[in-house]
């Protein structure tokens, strides 16, 4: 009975396997953010910023969900308003959400006007498509936050999230995925190397410039407060990438399987290469370095996941483990622009550099048969197979970079007229307790303000609880 139509809940066009995989993929991507990046951000920063960093990620996720269904989904995947932008509108009514999913501007035509590839119309309801694309939008904003952790005014962040989603993310999504001019030109971005990673890296770096740096003490020494939890968060990020790249064919098909395998090949290779470089040059295998290498591998393969062969995924892993390592460890300390801007987690390296690198390598290694399984433009191929795709990839990357620099700057300047982008100095010195009135751990030190009138000093033992009056010295029991 589960496979029979009943009351209209199982229409003829519904493929239950595709629908199940797409909802699972969306859930996996959602888990990358909540709790994945919430845990990662809360643990990789200095202890006094654990709550603030985790909460910035959680708040962004919730804010994006509401904005997405209210207006941003149709700006990204709806009817065309401009060649790079869809027409805004809500995605909330059952009439819209229960019909078969479709991207109305995705039909591809030859230059002579004849049909090249039909409109994208997956075999599941619009509700599945809306949610799947929503979690991609949410993780993009959360990745951006990594550049401004440890000093951005939370109230300014509350304003920034919907503005950036509306005026930046939707443009990249529609242009490359929703049937915009880059989609029809044949640019390859399988799962978001440009739409998500390049844009978040460039926008994060730009926002970091406008927000300003952390306090000197934090910038000089910013150790993670819990490396084991950092590994837990990064593990959720890695495993969740199966949905990130495996869900983008919009079906549980052979190309989806190829994408998932390539994702893991590239990530593993990149992690190993980054670790080897740390051992060769610093004589120590760094856990945080391994996490960075894992992330750059995942980012680099994202635009190519279902478009390249396994051997190419290994080559991309070698490059994603070495090129961003070089920019982060060497160039970042020597180029004045990079040293002047305080990019807290180095998002410009792990996402912008790795994302652009992945996009270019896609233009080199994209295999024609795999391209035919996914892309709207027929006969697409990389340089290795006699194509000129890499030129399109570079042009698209420059467009995404330029758009994000300009729009992010305008948003930050506009917010400054309403509220400061950077926290006041007294909050920067104290951290979570001053900003939220909450702290991650029941431990004291690291510059936090311990208010004995609020917290009191006490000791627990088997017999009784002994409270101590306020005094000039800390009493340890």
UniProtKB/TrEMBL annotation:
<feature type="transmembrane region" description="Helical">
    <location>
        <begin position="287"/>
        <end position="305"/>
    </location>
</feature>
<dbReference type="GO" id="GO:0008519">
    <property type="term" value="F:ammonium channel activity"/>
</dbReference>
<feature type="transmembrane region" description="Helical">
    <location>
        <begin position="256"/>
        <end position="275"/>
    </location>
</feature>
<dbReference type="InterPro" id="IPR024041">
    <property type="entry name" value="NH4_transpt_AmtB-like_dom"/>
</dbReference>
<keyword id="KW-0472">Membrane</keyword>
<feature type="transmembrane region" description="Helical">
    <location>
        <begin position="54"/>
        <end position="73"/>
    </location>
</feature>
<feature type="transmembrane region" description="Helical">
    <location>
        <begin position="352"/>
        <end position="377"/>
    </location>
</feature>
<keyword id="KW-0813">Transport</keyword>
<feature type="transmembrane region" description="Helical">
    <location>
        <begin position="311"/>
        <end position="331"/>
    </location>
</feature>
<feature type="transmembrane region" description="Helical">
    <location>
        <begin position="161"/>
        <end position="182"/>
    </location>
</feature>
<feature type="transmembrane region" description="Helical">
    <location>
        <begin position="20"/>
        <end position="42"/>
    </location>
</feature>
<protein>
    <recommendedName>
        <fullName>Ammonium transporter</fullName>
    </recommendedName>
</protein>
<feature type="transmembrane region" description="Helical">
    <location>
        <begin position="129"/>
        <end position="149"/>
    </location>
</feature>
<dbReference type="InterPro" id="IPR018047">
    <property type="entry name" value="Ammonium_transpt_CS"/>
</dbReference>
<dbReference type="Pfam" id="PF00909">
    <property type="entry name" value="Ammonium_transp"/>
</dbReference>
<feature type="domain" description="Ammonium transporter AmtB-like">
    <location>
        <begin position="20"/>
        <end position="441"/>
    </location>
</feature>
<feature type="transmembrane region" description="Helical">
    <location>
        <begin position="397"/>
        <end position="419"/>
    </location>
</feature>
<keyword id="KW-1133">Transmembrane helix</keyword>
<feature type="transmembrane region" description="Helical">
    <location>
        <begin position="194"/>
        <end position="212"/>
    </location>
</feature>
<feature type="transmembrane region" description="Helical">
    <location>
        <begin position="224"/>
        <end position="244"/>
    </location>
</feature>
<dbReference type="InterPro" id="IPR001905">
    <property type="entry name" value="Ammonium_transpt"/>
</dbReference>
<dbReference type="GO" id="GO:0005886">
    <property type="term" value="C:plasma membrane"/>
</dbReference>
<comment type="similarity">
    <text>Belongs to the ammonia transporter channel (TC 1.A.11.2) family.</text>
</comment>
<keyword id="KW-0812">Transmembrane</keyword>
<keyword id="KW-0924">Ammonia transport</keyword>
<dbReference type="InterPro" id="IPR029020">
    <property type="entry name" value="Ammonium/urea_transptr"/>
</dbReference>
């Amino acid at each position: 009975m589960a496979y029979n139509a009943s009351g209209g809940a199982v229409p003829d066009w519904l493929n239950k396997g595709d629908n199940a995989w797409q909802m699972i993929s969306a859930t996996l991507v959602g888990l990358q953010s909540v709790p994945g990046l919430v845990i990662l951000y809360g643990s990789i920063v200095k202890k006094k910023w654990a709550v603030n960093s985790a909460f910035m990620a959680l708040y962004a996720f919730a804010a994006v969900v509401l904005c997405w269904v209210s207006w941003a989904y149709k700006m990204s995947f709806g009817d065309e308003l401009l060649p790079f932008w869809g027409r805004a509108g809500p995605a909330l009514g059952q009439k819209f959400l229960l019909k078969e999913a479709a991207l109305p501007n995705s039909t591809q035509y030859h230059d002579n006007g004849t049909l090249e590839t039909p409109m994208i119309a997956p075999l599941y309801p619009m509700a599945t498509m809306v949610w799947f694309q929503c979690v991609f939008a949410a993780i993009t904003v959360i990745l951006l936050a990594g550049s401004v952790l440890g000093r951005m005014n939370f109230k300014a962040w509350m304003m920034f999230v919907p503005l950036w989603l509306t005026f930046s993310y939707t443009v990249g999504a529609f242009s490359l995925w929703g049937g915009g001019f880059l989609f029809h030109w044949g640019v390859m971005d399988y799962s978001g190397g440009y739409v998500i990673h390049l844009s978040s890296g460039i926008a994060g770096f730009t926002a970091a410039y406008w927000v300003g740096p952390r306090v000197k003490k934090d910038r000089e020494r910013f150790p993670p407060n819990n490396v084991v939890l950092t590994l837990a968060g990064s593990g959720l990020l890695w495993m969740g990438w199966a949905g990130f790249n495996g869900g983008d064919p919009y079906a549980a098909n052979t190309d989806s399987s190829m994408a998932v395998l390539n994702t893991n090949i590239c990530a593993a290779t990149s992690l190993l290469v980054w670790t080897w470089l740390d051992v060769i040059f610093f004589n120590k295998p760094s856990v945080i370095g391994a996490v960075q290498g894992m992330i750059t591998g995942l980012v680099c393969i994202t635009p190519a996941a279902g478009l390249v062969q396994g051997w190419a995924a290994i080559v991309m892993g070698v490059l994603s483990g070495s090129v961003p390592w070089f920019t982060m460890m060497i160039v970042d300390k020597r180029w004045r622009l990079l040293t002047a801007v305080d990019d807290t987690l180095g998002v410009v390296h792990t996402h912008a550099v790795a994302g652009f690198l992945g996009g270019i390598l896609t233009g080199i290694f994209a295999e024609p048969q795999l391209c035919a399984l996914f892309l709207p433009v027929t006969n697409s191929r990389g340089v290795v197979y006699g194509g000129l795709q890499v030129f399109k990839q570079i042009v698209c990357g420059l467009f995404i970079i330029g758009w994000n620099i300009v729009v992010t700057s305008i948003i930050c300047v506009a917010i400054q007229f309403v509220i400061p982008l950077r926290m006041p100095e007294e909050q920067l010195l104290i951290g979570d307790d001053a900003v939220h009135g909450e702290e991650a751990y029941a431990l004291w030190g690291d510059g936090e303000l311990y208010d004995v009138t609020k917290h009191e000093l006490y000791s627990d033992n088997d017999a009784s609880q002994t409270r101590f009056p306020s005094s000039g010295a800390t009493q340890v029991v």
